[in-house]
Amino acid sequence: MLPGMDLSDDDAGLMLRYKEGDAAAFCALYAEYKGPLYRYLLRHVRNAGAAADLFQEVWSRLVATRARYEPRAKFATFLFHIAHNCAVDFFRREVNLRGEVPAHEHHEPPLEPEVPEYQRPDRVAEFIEQQSALLAAVAALPQEQREAFLLREETGLTVEEIARVTDVPVETAKSRLRYAIRKLKKSLSPMQEPEVLPLRTYA
Amino acid sequence: MPEKRVPDEFDEYLRGDSALSRQYRRESAPAPPHALDRLVLRQAFRSAKSKAPLQSQSLAPLAFAASVLLSVALVLAIVFGPQAARRADDKPRVLQVSVYKTDPPRAAPASLRERNPAAWLEDIAALRRAGRDREADNEMRRFRSAYPDYLISVSE
């Protein structure tokens, strides 16, 4: 769970207040979830334009369905279930339009906004490089594993909640997350280990 | 054994204190553009300002109560209504039917019947003598309504 991110039922209470017409309650929800939701979409579909469209679509659906909202689970589960459905629709449309393997199957670099040069002093250059490597590794994951990892990292949902959001059995969600973690660790481990240089002796 | 190490790593990850999670959190955290914020908030505000949505679920108990009330009223009407009272009287009855060879006698208003036919005819004759034929004809029609079978002499 992200620091400072409250996923308790308070959010469900805020949504109930918005259901009754309290716009301030929506502002509070939006402020809390806009970042995680945007990053989930951006890193899941790996296209900034599509992520922006989907972001707006998710909130539109939330607004449209507010009258039917019932706090049966965490608000995050409700919101990200909508987001999951929007993403699934996006990938399906992409396949139908292009008639080929969707972009998420290609190994493309993540479309993260690059850090400007003036923010890259030499002292943190190595750190920045590692960040990019992690996002590249996340982007290279299969779609389902990437989604499980992003849901976990961006929302702090449990495996059971990830299963509910993605409409799969708990064991499937657990397996996806387990594979994602294993692959990410494997892809990052060479960078984390200190480089061992051979000793050279000069005559 | 690498196979045993994986579940431990996963459990550590699920506890939230793995190096992987810490590294992910250190990543840049892009946020939606401000224009997108404005779009979403405007839509949400517009929806909140509009009338509170009709909540079908909150109306469901009311609809159910109305249905029950109507059903009970219907059952009471069937069981205790006027139809039920008549049903108790549903015994065979003998009806008396009068059969006439000619047209049955027509009923006349009591006020017309009360007038003496001879005197009435005399009044009509007086109207004719006075040249008030229209009034005489009207009176004659009333007379015939009151006494359809009365025989009037030719002279009248």
Q: What percent of residues of chain A adopt helix (DSSP H or I)?
A: 55-70%
Percent range for β-strand residues of chain B? under 5%
Largest sheet of chain B: none
Q: SSE order of chain B, as H and E?
A: HHHHHHHH
Number of H/I helices of chain B: 8
Uncertain stretches of 5 or more adjacent residues of chain B: none
**Form type of chain A:** globular
The largest sheet of chain A, given as strand count, sense and whether it forms a barrel, is: none
Number of strands of chain B: 0
The number of domains of chain A: 1
Instruction: Compute the separation of the termini of chain A in Å.
Output: 56 Å
**What number is the mean pLDDT of chain A?**
80
Strand content of chain A: under 5%
DSSP summary, beta strand count of chain A: 0
Structural class of chain B, by secondary structure, is mainly alpha
**Mean pLDDT, all residues of chain B:** 76
Describe the global form of chain B.
Answer: elongated
Structural Rg of chain B: 49 Å
Q: Calculate Rg of chain A over CA atoms.
A: 20 Å
Description:
- The complex is a heterodimer of chains A (203) and B (156).
- Chain A is mainly α and 203 residues long.
- Chain A is built from 8 helices and no strands.
- The N terminus of chain A is likely disordered.
- With 156 residues, chain B is an all-alpha fold.
- Chain B has a domain of 37 residues.
- In chain B, 64% of the residues lie in helices and 0% in strands.
- Chain B has 8 helices and no strands.
- In chain B, helix 4 packs parallel to helix 5 and helix 7 packs antiparallel against helix 8.
